[in-house]
Amino acid sequence: MRRWFIRPVMSVVALAALLVGFAGDAEAQDAKKKRGDRNRLLQEEIVEAGATIVTARDAVRLLRPQWLNPPMGRMASSDLVAPGGGARSIILYVDDVRQPDLEVLTQVKAADIIEMRYLDQNRAVQYRGPGHEAGVIEIKTKREP
Question: b vs e for 41-55, b when ≥16 Cβ sit within 10 Å of the residue's Cβ?
């Protein structure tokens, strides 16, 4: 006699649970957007971080410190400390121009940065070719080419 009542109630409860699940997913996505992509750093995130970020090095050090850690692969961390860059150290590109070493990060002003990207070992070799096994940091700036 009461079965006609139980099914609609169960349907409403199931629908409510589904809606709560979608709301939770939306909140998780918003939180992820605020944290940012771990392999990408946008100007908005740098600006939100505040005045403590003056150079590209500050941005990486404070917002994506893992970019400067040695990759977890065939190379040991001592292999990455090669002077002058090369296959054994992370390579930096600013506006698609290869830089001599990571010290250039201190010369790029944070206000000039549009976007920074990190390519891990696999992607660096895939997109930039041999010699990029330690990874790549790419910076796009507002400067005119």
Answer: bbbebbeeeeeebeb
